[in-house]
Amino acid sequence: DAGVIQSPRHEVTEMGQEVTLRCKPISGHDYLFWYRQTMMRGLELLIYFNNNVPIDDSGMPEDRFSAKMPNASFSTLKIQPSEPRDSAVYFCASSLSDSTDTQYFGPGTRLTVL
Amino acid sequence: QKEVEQNSGPLSVPEGAIASLNCTYSDRGSQSFFWYRQYSGKSPELIMFIYSNGDKEDGRFTAQLNKASQYVSLLIRDSQPSDSATYLCAVIDGGSQGNLIFGKGTKLSVKP
Hints:
Chain A is mostly beta strands. Chain A has strands at residues 5-7, 10-13, 19-24, 31-38, 42-50, 53-56, 65-71, 74-79, 88-95, 104-105, 109-113. Chain B is mainly β. In chain B, strands 2, 4, 5, 9, 10 and 11 form a six-stranded mixed beta sheet that branches.
């Protein structure tokens, strides 16, 4: 299995632009998680899905952030408009069952907003 | 605000020594605890999980849990330079639908 796939690996954009991050979970995994990692705040859960349905989005920082999972093999995290404070590494992870199961992380997308 | 606290380090140990990494958590309702390893520039990977009080051993790694003290630790025996990484403690949020709360991690450096 190829593992969790994320694209792009690096994204540099200017403040105010729309950014879309993509994730393909491991086939057969029912749970998908989006995390953000910064030096200041560490690794934070933004949102997670179970069987394509958003379960908890309480970690989404504000309305500028949105996430979708149109099918079992694809999810997007969108930031519109982007701001410099959104600069971070964004990880997608998937697991067979809930958080008590092993979460497999993708390689991450390093986002820089100028 | 539920918190997971770790000493940021860096923790430096000589090759062959025992590395001891510590973590405290604020949520008494937490039942599941995880240790993830993250190499610089890479993604986190699970190395240990523990649910019951006491010790759990897996090769050179031992996880220790004390729920009364809200304390979980990771011991790495016979530390190798390849163990140099940041170790993230994660705790299931007992009050939520099972979200993982991560500590900020302890950076371990094993010197040859």
